[in-house]
Write a structure and sequence with these properties.
This protein is α/β, with parallel strands linked by helices. The protein has 16 helices and 27 strands. Strand 10 and strand 11 form a beta hairpin. The radius of gyration is 26 Å and the shape is globular.
Length: 611
């Protein structure tokens, strides 16, 4: 016992002694260039991405226990606690050590401001907040006083932690916020951060419902919140259109983001003008198993049915993954003989048969995850239950050169089949963003899509990505990091026998361009092709085929060959979940179906809706 007490005392003394020790920067790649963030006046403002990277690099240094949360977790916590009009900030203030050019050690006081929210939809009424819990300090004296210049033309003024500062921006675009403090020795420290103002204002929902599932999956109940946005002049939910959100990478798709997404082409407001009420479900954890969130949907439908007038029916739409979640919810309710009262179900560019992220890009993310916060985060998203349930090829399930999905995809499909595969009571409609005319994504199978090659005295880097081939064998990722003195790592990732999902018709996603947009001080990441097939056309139509280039337009019995009663597809590939004038009109017609005088709305043959 005495020996344990002595050991514990020694540990406490060591921890106390290390509390003021500078963070020793490791001799490895520094994408954030942390040691440059020394609080000098006039330094370039930090993007949210670079600030997260700086926190990532200091947390990984490891020699000193900082007790800091991950930057994204910190952001998620603050966004959950503050209102939608708040833009929370984070402040990094720490003493770090780096190796100087003469081989010695140089101390640097890092002072770096970052926005925890990348964009705001409340430009005319923003609350800037610096929560105390978002001031990450180590080895430095507590801050005495802060001033802020919000970039609104009013100059510097007092800025107290935890106290919101109301700011109004008359226009949209990139905004720069600066903070400064003067230390007791008279040294001025200053830093700046940027974020985007996307729109001037977003209307508030009429009310927000908290939704907790009564049924559990794997012992846990899913939760969410439903934003109720009534038609103009209405005080009670009457004619609901329930919309289910999709795969939310970091659970930041709150009401302003969802409103902006759903009101493309003025869709949401036009529905309200027609007398429909919107109920938009935002999952607490959108990356949870699809079945768990499906029970959040069943709970929401119960709440809606208990609120609307007796005998009223519901239009239900699932965007992207929301189409899978709502499909499972309806199947389960029908299996349990629960009257869901859904008259029409709309699957909007939903991966009913699977989704696609280029396998070479997945390998790129996995290889660089130890160096880049963005890659580390994306790898964690690839490994979430929902992603594993949807991806046609998963990097962790590829054995040797054989590309394969995660076993959770087959398990999900088996679960659908056990419940009857497709809901039987509502009208089933599918709107897709992928081409029905076999259009590709602007490149061929096996083409290189990302190029990153950097050579210097200090570090050599390769990060090249190719689309999967149409059969055959090919290297689809070539990675290398070689840092002077400490060496590095390399990987070649080869696959064979793949289907050409990357370049085939489908709702597209700009994943390669997003990778190229990652701030990289070592050379340029070039997206040779910006977007790829994300939701294959054959998947979103539920077609039982392994041909990514299936001739949809040439199928004389298309609707009969799908599980849907009505389908809509464009001629050219569109961005995933893009609302156009054409699919908007079709969506509204499907919402009206069965509600009021459908015979006058749907002409003979319109139910096929093939452009």
């Amino acid at each position: 016992m005495l020996n344990r007490l002595v050991a514990l005392l020694a540990l406490l003394v060591a921890l106390a002694a290390s509390a003021d020790q500078p963070v020793r920067l490791e001799q490895r790649l520094s994408l954030a260039r942390v040691s440059d963030l020394d609080g000098s006046v006039g330094l370039q403002p930090l993007s949210p991405q670079r600030w997260r990277q700086a926190v990532f690099e200091l947390r990984r240094a490891g020699a000193v226990e900082l007790g800091w949360p991950q930057a994204r977790r910190l952001a998620s916590q603050q966004l959950g606690q503050l209102g939608p009009q708040a833009v929370p900030l984070g402040l990094l203030h720490a003493l770090v050590e780096k190796q100087s050019q003469d081989g010695g050690v140089q101390a640097v006081e890092v002072f770096a401001l970052g926005a925890l929210k990348e964009r705001s939809f409340h430009g005319h009424n923003i609350d800037l907040v610096l929560p105390s819990s978002a001031i990450l300090q180590h080895g430095v004296a507590p801050l005495q006083q802060l001033e802020v210049d919000a970039g609104d033309g009013r100059g510097f003024r007092h800025f107290a932690p935890d106290k919101p500062l109301n700011v109004s921006y008359p226009d949209t675009g990139t905004k720069t916020v600066r903070v400064r403090t003067i230390r007791q020795n008279g040294v001025l420290l200053e830093s700046a951060a940027t974020f985007e103002v996307v729109r001037g204002t977003t209307p508030d929902p009429t009310e927000t419902w908290q939704v907790t599932a009564s049924e559990t999956w794997d012992g846990e109940a899913g939760t969410g919140q439903a934003y109720v946005y009534l038609a103009a002049g209405r005080t009670e939910l009457t004619n609901p259109v329930v919309v289910i959100e999709g795969f939310d990478l970091d659970n930041t798709m709150d009401w302003p983001v969802l409103y902006d997404l759903l009101n493309q082409e003025n869709l949401l407001e036009d529905l309200r003008a027609d007398g429909f009420d919107a109920v938009v479900l935002d999952f607490t954890e959108a990356v949870d198993p699809i079945q768990r969130n499906a029970f959040v949907v069943t709970e929401l439908l119960d709440q809606v049915r208990a609120t609307i007038p007796p005998g009223q029916s519901i239009a239900l739409a699932g965007a992207s993954m929301g189409g899978l979640v709502s499909r499972y919810a309806l199947l389960w309710m029908e299996d349990q003989a629960i009257d869901h009262q859904v008259r029409t179900w709309i699957s909007f560019d939903s991966p009913q048969m699977g989704a696609n992220i280029p396998l070479g890009l997945q390998a790129w993310v996995r290889f660089f995850a130890s160096e880049a916060e963005e890659a580390d985060f994306l790898l964690s998203r690839l490994r979430t239950p929902a992603a594993r349930q949807m991806l046609l090829y998963h990097v962790d399930s590829t054995v040797g050169t054989t590309a394969a999905p995660d076993p959770l995809l087959a398990a999900l499909n088996a679960g659908f089949d056990a419940l009857g595969s497709w809901p039987q009571l509502p009208r089933r409609a599918s709107i897709i963003n992928g081409s029905g005319l076999m259009a590709d994504q602007g490149f061929n199978a096996g083409d290189q899509v990302i190029e990153w090659e950097h050579r210097s005295v200090l570090v050599d880097i390769d990060g090249n990505v190719w689309a999967v081939p149409d059969g055959g064998s090919q290297v689809i990722f070539e990675g290398m990091i070689d840092v002077i003195i400490i060496g590095g790592d390399s990987e070649d990732f080869t696959v064979s026998g793949t289907l050409p999902w990357d370049n085939s018709p489908g709702g597209s996603r700009p994943s390669m361009q997003q990778a190229a947009d990652v701030e990289a001080p070592y050379g340029d990441i070039v997206a040779l092709h910006g977007s790829h097939n994300f939701i294959p056309s054959v998947s979103s139509l539920g077609l039982a085929t392994n041909d990514p280039f299936y001739d949809i337009a040439g199928d004389p019995n298309l609707v009969a060959n799908t599980p849907f009663d009505a389908v809509y597809y464009p001629a050219a590939n569109q961005e995933h979940i893009e609302i156009t004038a054409e699919n908007k009109a079709w969506f509204i017609s499907e919402v009206w179906f069965g509600f009021e005088n459908p015979d006058a709305i749907f002409a003979s043959g319109f139910e096929a809706a093939i452009p």
